[in-house]
Design brief:
Order of helices and strands: EEHHEEEEH
CATH superfamily: Hotdog Thioesterase
Oligomer: single chain
Largest sheet: 6 strands, antiparallel
Number of strands: 6
Radius of gyration: 16 Å
Helix content: 10-25%
Distance between the termini: 19 Å
CATH topology: Thiol Ester Dehydrase, Chain A
Number of helices: 3
CATH class: Alpha Beta
């Protein structure tokens, strides 16, 4: 796995990314606005792939350009978090089925579970059509998966 200091770390298959809550992430009461969690989850998925050697820019510049589109996002908000909280986004790529990647994520504040998400992301071409992941992409994510592709 590649090293990028700001991209988090792996703990076994699980990727862990530190995230700080900033003023811009909160509503007028100082509580994290629900859409900010979606951004945190996105950062977790992206940095997990980055550490595995998958870079979005390279995918887009490939001879078969590929991107990702979230097709399903189910979030459970369990506890509130607030400005200045230190959070950790945990990401597990579970399996690949056809063009779809299945991902389980959670956000923690210390030992407190804040939110969970089940995500399905599809590999797409630049016209938005689903496509199976390339062999290089599958090879990069294979060590992260609970089920072999």
């Amino acid at each position: 796995m590649n090293e990028h200091p700001s991209a988090g770390r792996f703990d076994g298959r699980e990727h862990r990314l530190a995230v700080r809550v900033y003023y811009e992430d909160t509503d007028f009461t100082g509580v994290v606005y629900h859409a900010a969690y979606v951004r945190y989850f996105e950062r977790g998925r992206s940095d997990c792939l980055r550490l595995a050697g998958v870079h979005h820019g390279e995918l887009a510049a490939d001879e078969r350009p590929t991107a990702f589109a979230v097709t399903r996002l189910e979030v459970d908000f369990l506890k509130a978090s607030h400005i200045d909280d230190a959070l950790e986004v945990r990401t597990l790529y579970e399996r690949v089925r056809g063009a779809r990647l299945f991902v389980s994520q959670s956000i923690w504040r210390g030992e407190t579970l804040i939110a969970t998400a089940e995500v399905v992301a599809a590999c797409i071409d630049l016209a938005g059509r689903a496509r199976k992941p390339s062999k290089a992409l599958l090879d990069a994510v294979a060590p992260l998966l609970a089920e072999a592709p």
